[in-house]
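Record type: monomer structure entry
Structure origin: computed from sequence
Chain ID: A
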Amino acid sequence: MSLFSFITPVIKVRVLFGLFGILRDMKNAILLHGLPSKEEYYNLARPSASNAHWFSWLQNQLLIKDVQTHTPEVFKVYEAGWEDWVQEVERYDINENTTLVGHSMGGGFWVRYLSEHPNLKVDKVILVAPWLNVSHEEDITFFDFKPNPELLTQTNKFVIFASDNDSQDVKNSVEFLISKYPNLTAKDFHDYGHFTYSSMKTDEFPELLTECLN
């Protein structure tokens, strides 16, 4: 029989609430991937979306800085709908100490998710090459939503990373967000493409790490 079993119910509740408070005060981060094609998803020569590009490196760097870091993996993401993405990210605690990082469609996801949860407060939002299908490049309903005009009040920091040689559809999404939220911070990069391993030629992303920690 454990020592905990001898503790009165009232003390047990206080202990559990104390532990919950500690967890709520802990810095955490959620790194959300983009949208691979079906062929990329099943390609054994490629890492899974949540381990691709700089995700594993960034997760490790944040963990050794005592930031509890998660990299959700949306199952069959190439055909997943909005609720599938929501179900996956809501496995993790999102609170005022959370840093949300999204790449490509993952960045667009966080814009909609926060817009649909206007009372949710987070510490930082960092979108890397965000894509929201603003020019309707794809015939999908994933981004059929109304952006919250007060979105920037839900976070202490809202940053976009954009490259001068990314695709036009991503540039359109970046321009849309800047026009919608002129007070956000936009960081421009030269020749980083879509911030993938193939365009950056490395899985290290120190600029993003610095932004997550500052």
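Annotation 1: The longest strand covers residues 155-163.
Annotation 2: Residues 140 and 172 are 17 Å apart (CA to CA).
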